[in-house]
Amino acid sequence: MDISVVVPLYNEAESLPELTEWIRQVMNKNNFTYEIILVDDGSDDDSWKVIERLKADHAEIVGIKFRRNYGKSAALNVGFEAVQGEVVITMDADLQDSPDEIPELYRRIREEDFDLVSGWKQKRYDPLTKTIPTKFFNSVTRSMSGIKNLHDFNCGLKAYRRDVVKSIEVYGEMHRYIPVIAKWAGFKKIGEQVVEHRARKYGTTKFGFSRFINGFLDLLSIFFVGKFAKRPMHFFGALGVTSFFTGTLIALWIIGEKLYHIANHIRYTREVTDQPLFYIALVAIVVGFQLFLTGFIAELVSRNAPERNSYQIEKTV
Ligand code: UDP
Ligand code: MG
To answer: What distance in angstroms lies between residue 279's CA and the mean position of ligand 1's atoms?
Structure first.
């Protein structure tokens, strides 16, 4: 099978017939063998009924229904487990992404050998309240992840080699950072393609303002997990030990100074407890100790993690 299209959807009943029909036309025109995997993320409208109806008419449609709403990442993850095609295309169900982009995306994976090609909605049809924070996000993600050539990490329209989606795990709301996850998993050839973006035709957006706060926290954790998940002590331990010893040295210095004055019968001007530096030293000691302990506990946790010794093997001969 050439292509698997994965479509996560939540309350998108109106769009589905149009979307699947359009995908089918594109596929038939290009003689691709394909499947369309519709993952219903616990919709409370008629989405599932529509999917069942579509399935009855078209064998290449696969429907998967969640019992409740788990989020776009979960839907993608389950879709990825089911795919069979050589190339996997993800797209949103709301008709904002155009299926006409599929042949070119497919060509770039097959012929130009990309692991992942992400769409870039260069001209967007979204309100300003969304496009401006998005610009900021993309630039922070670009510099934190070192993927310099992507402008639009969270574009719903992406193409992958099958290996990629079978080796990565998308959970929580991490769908925003799939290129980063792929890069951590060792897939380096990540490209971009300018794609047409359209205004939402039916329904409303499923993500509110919280997307920006959650998105930022997710960026921090993905970065941290990618870098230190297998060796947390290197992060917490280094900070903790530095803080602990700096604090201890300062405290010893201040106390030593007092003892020195007493021993030599010199009048000293400030009590130990009158000096702000002393309190800073105490805080540094306590915080340092806690950071160290956090690192130690994290180390114990990661030692027990089932995937502590799982590595991505590309080939063996
Ligand atoms: N979606 C989903 N589960 C959710 C929220 C959204 O499967 O909990 C789907 C949604 O149906 C759509 C895609 O994810 O197909 C992108 O959502 P939306 O268009 O609302 O996001 P926006 O375009 O506003 O970023
Ligand atoms: Mg949308």
So the answer is: 50
